[in-house]
Amino acid sequence: MQQSKTVVTMVGLFVTAGLIALFFLAMQVSNLSSFQGNGSYIIKARFDNVGGLKVRSPVSVAGVRVGRVKTITFDKKAYVAIVDMSIESRYDTLPTDTSASIFTSGLLGEQYIGLEPGGDEEFLGEGDTLELTQSALVLEEMIGKFLFKKAEGSANN
């Protein structure tokens, strides 16, 4: 009887450790594990189309993650999406003429914002807006344009 209590206790501990590991794995996958507090500043960018960009998507420069997307809102007057990015304070030397593009990691991976620093001597600060942006390439639109051009080319022959 004593041996079965030990086995039950060990199984319980093993299951508990497994659940804790699954929790931390879920936090890593959902990007909830990295909270940014006072050590960051917000910059904005306007995009015609953000595609599948989501809040907490990475913001990177030269492949290095420097921040995350904080909010995505819609401007009712200009009909564009406004993306607020939280950039870590240690990356406070981004020039004011930095450009932002929305990329997809891999063929069908998650979308992220890639920043391309410019050459200006002044740096971005809290609340600044990036002027040079490139919207997301939507796969469905590209296929539609390709098929339309093919159909148009065969109709002319």
Secondary-structure blueprint:
Layout: H1 2-29, E1 40-47, E2 58-61, E3 64-75, E4 80-88, E5 99-104, E6 111-116, E7 129-130, E8 132-134, H2 139-156
Summarize the structure.
By secondary structure, this protein is α/β, with parallel strands linked by helices.
Strand numbers in spatial order across the main sheet: 7-1-4-3-2-6-5-8
Whole-angstrom Rg? 23 Å
Mass-distribution shape: flat
Q: Main β-sheet, in a few words? A: 8 strands, mixed
Count of separate structural domains: 2
Secondary structure class reads: alpha/beta
Residue share in helix = 25-40%
Mean pLDDT: 85
Our measurement of the CA-to-CA distance between the termini, rounded to an integer number of angstroms, reads 87 Å
Low-confidence stretches at least 5 residues in length (pLDDT < 50)?
A: none
Q: How much of the polypeptide forms β-strand, as a percent range?
A: 25-35%
Total beta strand runs: 8
Count of helical segments? 2
Helix and strand pattern: HEEEEEEEEH
